[in-house]
Design goal:
The chain is an alpha/beta fold and about 290 residues long. It has 2 domains: about 80 residues, no CATH class; about 190 residues, Rossmann fold, CATH 3.40.50.150. Helices cover about 35% and strands about 15% of the residues. The protein is built from 11 helices and 9 strands. The strands form 2 sheets. The protein has a 7-stranded mixed beta sheet with strand order 5-4-3-6-7-9-8. Helix 1 crosses helix 2, helix 1 packs parallel to helix 3 and helix 2 packs antiparallel against helix 3. It is globular and about 65 Å long.
């Protein structure tokens, strides 16, 4: 039987020789190979695991997934049916967005200057399979969290992920169009967070094959990538509490946001774990500038 270390090296060579793109939890062939082998074998990500033997069943499964990853150009998380994000497991399946937003790394202590740990009301718009809302519930243990997601598949996975972390009493999933849903609400939130679709029309034409396994509605956001942000911003003065915060990712469409809203008091956040285009707006000073 081959060892974990030998199999990682073998998968790495296969991935390195193939025209693959990364970005769904890893950004290079080595990390992708480690991710695949350890996910299937269940061994820990440490040096001691490298000498462990891989069973024939696991070996054939890894071989099968390696071939699928190369020939179908499918994201590995879709092939595995789950992903690891911030050290936690989230269920996914083909046809849904894969968790990877840098917003996850900002929740809790990194936002302490803007968001109190004692907040009680959070909404995650365009919640996907629920990772950001679940992480928010963990970081803010007094908060009730609402996850709003249009896609039925993703909403069902969000419910399952909420159950996985036993958060059903505090985290609730609403299957709805986030823009329409927000516009008819009467409540206010301490934290509105969102990782909406934000890929602009030009970038949609050049997406790597791996990203085409995700739903177009989870990626495309009009000519400048800001279609959903344009819908959310006018609602903020009515939907945030007096000390409320809006936290949003627009990725590579960040270039278009500030010129479009020059008077908006946008605060771009440092992302030490990588990524781009996450901004924050606070209710004080927001006034009617988004109308």
């Amino acid at each position: 039987m081959r060892s974990v270390g030998e199999l990682i090296e073998s998968v790495y060579r296969c991935f390195g020789q193939a025209p693959l793109s990364y970005g769904h939890g890893t950004d290079n062939a080595w990390d992708e190979a480690v991710y695949l082998v350890l996910s299937v074998t269940g061994y820990a990500d440490d040096e001691a695991s490298l000498q462990q033997a891989v069973t024939p069943v696991d070996f054939h499964r890894i071989e099968e997934l390696t071939n699928q990853r190369i020939h179908a150009r499918a994201p590995l998380a879709h092939l595995l049916g789950e992903c690891q994000f911030m050290g936690q497991r989230f269920l996914v399946r083909p046809g849904v967005m894969i968790p990877r937003s840098p917003i996850g790394y900002l929740l809790g202590e990194p936002l302490a200057d803007w968001v109190s740990p004692d907040i009680t009301n959070i909404v995650d718009l365009c919640a996907g399979v629920g990772c950001l809302g679940i992480l928010a519930a963990q970081r803010y243990p007094q908060a009730q969290v609402t996850l709003v997601e249009l896609d039925a598949q993703a909403a069902e996975l969000a419910r399952r992920n909420v159950g996985l972390y036993h958060l059903g009493e505090r985290v609730h999933v609403v299957e709805a169009d986030a823009c329409q849903w927000l516009a008819v609400q009467a409540g206010r939130w301490d934290l509105i967070l969102t990782n909406p679709p934000y890929v602009d029309a030009l970038d949609m034409q050049t997406l790597p094959e791996e990203y085409r396994h995700e739903p177009v509605l989870g990626l495309a956001a009009g000519e400048d990538g800001l279609a959903l942000v344009d819908a959310f911003l006018p609602e903020l003065p009515k939907r945030l509490t007096p000390d409320g915060v809006f936290l949003c990712e627009v990725g590579a469409s960040a270039w278009a946001l500030q010129p479009k809203y020059p008077e908006l008091p946008i605060q771009w956040l440092e992302l030490p774990q990588g990524g781009e285009g996450v901004f924050l707006l606070t209710m004080p000073g927001l006034g009617t500038q988004t109308k």
